[in-house]
Write a structure and sequence with these properties.
The protein is α/β, with parallel strands linked by helices. Helix content is 39%, strand content 11%. Strand 1 and strand 2 (58-63) form a beta hairpin. The longest helix has 31 residues, at 2-32. The protein binds 2-acetamido-2-deoxy-beta-D-glucopyranose (NAG) (5 copies).
């Protein structure tokens, strides 16, 4: 399943790449012959925009197909290839705090007792009694263990979620439990079956779940080689219209107490029309792609290879048996990986940096490398996220994230710097010296913490306390608490 999706995506990406090259050539031609070029052309083109589509999975505007210029990247402002500015993880920390104190969702149109409960919960979390040792939790992994503990307790005690029954299969209500997008499927399956949080009475609900699958949306409605997926967005817009017409709840808050959980690359853009006010739990958690820190949450991308035993193969070699300093293998998606390979592919015996590994059953070679390396490199692909982050955690390898604007999962509560390394894209040439500069003691500490954080990234067929299902729900709850208002 995962493989098929990949090859379909690959073809689409190739098509997009060809189109952008065409546009670049036309633009260069214009500039060379002193025809209107650069921002003039872009300005002109913007006026005739009528559609949107993806290039390298970022949104671009498509001009009507009679025109000689067929598409253009967005956010161009003079330069054709968007070079993303970097938001460091420390800056994200600040933005999160800032947004949690300043972001406010729409004022509800009428009173509901749940709004008071959320405000009360916020106050209790902000004034949480200070704790240092919490049974099953490892304190250094958290930004603030006292606040997390209180918030989690309150979630267990009061949170009620209403799950909409509207919507036809397979896009709605049909969870897919395998492959690289499996997180959205597992969450859907476990949420729809849940007895603790789900309420049948929407008046008691603090949150409303829109149970669609961004993967099924693509597989069902995307017309192969089509330059546009506006029909996918239309489908979601219609869904929202149905919900808003039939029930009073959407209009009460403009969707601010509604949430979705979506792992496909396109999900941020697909949900950026009618669903912008919702809390969006997204694998593609890209600060440059409409992700709002403090409202949206980063969904871990988990590559599930066995739906019966999603945790199969967990664990890795002891520290002394991890002979490889750093490992990466994968396709040359996006602009970062070719740079990584150019600097480190086949250059240094400590740095096992490869393109795609030869196929092996259950991806055995790849997993063995992860289990036997000190650091696992997680560079962005077409998008900021990668299943490698959770794989590294599963196989007890310290993740090294090279993806400048990626908001890591459960960012609201986890202190990522305590168990992962962040290297900025421009520092790829210094990768080895950066890793070697980490003292052994610090490495051992991070590795131990990777093992401790594992429990928060594992799917179970029957959810257990603090597992990934509860952590996904908790981040949504936490952001709802910090953005709620009263009428
Ligand atoms: C323009 O593109 C759309 C699909 O995006 C297609 O249906 C339509 O036939 C095209 N029109 C022309 C004139 O090529
Ligand atoms: C954690 O949050 C609580 C409640 O706001 C606060 O009293 C405490 O000082 C915080 N602890 C740390 C380490 O920041
Ligand atoms: C919610 O608002 C929309 C747009 O204003 C309206 O069409 C719809 O009927 C409203 N829903 C309800 C249940 O009143
Ligand atoms: C913070 O919230 C505001 C909305 O109040 C949003 O526009 C902004 O993008 C958010 N910042 C980040 C970094 O997400
Ligand atoms: C798209 O990706 C290709 C290779 O993956 C890269 O060469 C190109 O610069 C990218 N284009 C944009 C607009 O990011």
């Amino acid at each position: 399943m995962g493989q098929q999706v990949f090859s379909l995506l690959e073809r689409k990406k190739l098509l997009s790449l060809l189109s952008i090259i065409t546009f670049a050539l036309i633009l260069a031609f214009h500039c060379y012959f002193k025809l209107p070029c650069g921002s003039n052309v872009l300005q002109h083109s913007l006026e005739s925009v009528h559609k949107t589509m993806m290039v390298n999975n970022s949104y671009v505007n498509v001009i009507d197909n009679h025109s000689s210029i067929t598409m253009m990247p967005k956010e161009t402002e003079g330069s054709l290839v968007k070079v993303p500015e970097m938001t460091s993880i420390s800056e994200m920390d600040k933005l999160l705090l800032q947004n949690h104190s300043s972001y406010q969702s729409m004022r509800p149109r009428w009173f509901s007792a749940v709004d008071q409960e959320l405000l009360q919960a916020r106050s209790e979390i902000e004034n949480a009694p200070v704790v240092t040792d919490v049974g099953n939790l490892y304190t250094p992994l958290f930004r603030n263990i006292s606040m997390f503990k209180r918030s989690y307790e309150l979630m267990e005690k009061i949170l009620k979620v209403y799950v909409y029954r509207e919507g036809a299969k397979p896009i709605m209500h049909s969870p897919n439990l395998l492959g690289i997008y499996a997180s959205e499927g597992w969450f859907m399956k476990l949420m729809e079956a849940n007895k603790v949080f789900v309420t049948k009475d929407p008046k008691n609900a603090h949150l409303f779940y829109l149970p669609f699958s961004s993967q099924m949306l693509e597989e069902t409605l995307y017309i192969q080689n089509s330059p546009s997926y506006s029909n996918l967005m239309q489908y979601l817009n219609n869904y929202v219209d149905t919900i808003a017409a039939k029930h009073p709840f959407w209009n009460r808050t403009g969707g601010a107490d509604h949430f979705l959980v979506a792992c496909h690359d396109w999900a941020p853009s697909e949900t950026n029309e009618r669903m912008t006010k919702c809390i969006r739990s997204l694998c593609n958690a890209d600060l440059k792609e409409s992700f709002v820190l403090g409202k949206d949450t980063s969904l871990p991308e988990t590559y599930v290879r066995n739906a019966q035993i999603p945790t199969r193969g967990l664990g890795g070699k002891s520290v002394s048996k991890r002979k490889t300093l750093a490992f990466f293998a994968g396709g040359m998606h996006g602009y970062v990986r070719p740079i990584l390979l150019q600097h480190w592919g086949n250059k240094d015996p400590d740095m096992k940096i490869f393109g795609e590994l030869p196929k092996s059953k259950g991806n055995k070679n790849y997993i063995q490398y992860m289990k036997g390396s000190k650091y696992c490199i997680c560079p962005k692909g077409y998008e900021v996220n990668s299943p490698r982050v959770v794989e590294a955690i599963m196989y007890e390898c310290v993740p090294v994230i090279i993806s400048d604007n990626f908001v890591p999962p459960f960012f609201e509560v986890l202190n990522w710097k305590s168990f992962a390394v962040f290297v900025s894209e421009k520092d790829i040439p210094n990768l080895k010296s950066i890793l070697l500069s980490i003292p052994v003691k610090k490495y051992l500490q991070m590795r131990m913490r990777v093992k401790k954080v594992q429990q928060h990234f594992l799917w179970h067929r029957s959810p257990v306390k603090y597992d990934i299902y509860h952590m996904v729900l908790h981040s949504i709850w936490y952001n709802r608490v910090f953005t709620a208002r009263t009428a």
